[in-house]
Amino acid sequence: MLTLLALYANEHWMTRTLRIDAASHPADLVKAVNDSIDGGLSEGRLERRGNGWILHCEIRPGYEWPFCDLQVRLAELGRGVDLTQFDSVRLWVRASGPEPVQHVRVFLRHFDPAYSNSGKEADMKPHEVVFAPSAESVPVEFRLAQFMVASWWVQEHPLPVHLLGPQLDNTVLLSLTTSGLVTPGAHKIELDAIEFVGVWVDPATFRLAIIAVWFACMGAFLFWDWRRSRLRLGRTLRHKRELQQANARLVVRSGEYEAKAHHDPLTGVSNRLGLKHDLNLLMRAQEEQMFPLAVVFADIDHFKSINDSLGHDAGDEVLKQFAQHLKANIQREDLLARWGGEEFVLLMPLTRAEEAVAVAERLRLMLTEQAWSGGIKVTASFGVAQATRHSEGEAGIEAAMRAADQAMYKAKREGRNRVECNFKDLGKEA
Ligand SMILES: Nc1nc2c(ncn2[C@@H]2O[C@H](COP(=O)(O)OP(=O)(O)OP(=O)(O)O)[C@@H](O)[C@H]2O)c(=O)[nH]1
């Protein structure tokens, strides 16, 4: 829209105008001239009417080319107007006379010291157009490029080649003249105003400038867009980094919560949930290398009396020590968990019940040999069972655990500080 507006403004508003009429132009610079200067008999008289002039002209035979002239001097001699800064001239002209179609010649006379030094108007180079005012609308507009140097003048004024063409940078005179082949009689030329019109900036140059502005705007836009995208990308990357960091923190935190959920806070070994979780992982990863799976239940003997005699804190300390001793004396692949209270469970993959009984026996002995805080003696009762390959997955393991628990109670009944093994309640041979 701006471009269209600028193009319109260039053509219609960004113009320079030089207007000449009787109201603004000094009266002594306008006069009527006739062929008497060449020995003719025609008579011209100038009348001012309103803001214009009227040339009354009586053409009489007597000179070979009779004429009358309405001469408007644009400036003093030698100080002409530079018409090259204008594109066209508008004339408010009417003409009447005895001819069927009345013609008028328009001359722009140029002063150049190379041929005009005599100061005579006849020695100023005439640029000419001829037209019939009645055939044109008023005002009639000529492009200055339409004015041609009059050939008859060039014949009378031989000039070097470089001076033959049109020259309008020092124009001193505009004249309206009766036509060359004029009919004798009363002629009249009315001139209301003259207007030279030009644009400040030549349209071609202006369009080039607009294209340049477009390119500059596009470049500026691309640069701005590139910077905006970079900033946006930076923000996105920052946001992504923050999300990754938050995510990493969440992963760590959820790992911590999971560890807490799977471990007994007092002894640090797995709780029931942790044992189930670890067992599931093992079953998924290496079910084939799990069986036979030995299950050992260990329960501290007379733990209530430890609590009662030494206090609950001492009881806690015994529980911690008990768990550490068990943990330190089993293999890495064995799973140890606190089943509840003072009861612990041990799962031993690829271990037969007989081997597990031996391990339980070793653990039982080991516990009796430990130095316990408070100088007390701590013993435990063990129950052993086994889940075979024939047992169906978790159901088999749960059955083995029940059997081991019962064996442990049997050990309690049989006097404590002993190991009992239960095959019977599994219903299958190891
Ligand atoms: N200090 C402490 N005591 C606990 C904890 N959990 C359970 N107990 C106690 O452990 C005792 C278990 O007593 P009982 O079930 O009678 O068994 P017991 O005294 O060991 O006797 P037997 O198992 O038959 O040898 C109870 O007094 C519980 O309060 C614990 O986390 N810390």
TrEMBL record:
The keyword rRNA-binding does not apply. Its EC number is 2.7.7.65. SMART domains: GGDEF. Pfam families: GGDEF. The keyword Transmembrane helix applies. Residues 291-424 form the GGDEF domain. Keywords: Membrane, Transmembrane, Transmembrane helix. The chain crosses the membrane at residues 204-224. It catalyses: 2 GTP = 3',3'-c-di-GMP + 2 diphosphate. PROSITE patterns: GGDEF. This is diguanylate cyclase. It comes from Roseateles oligotrophus.
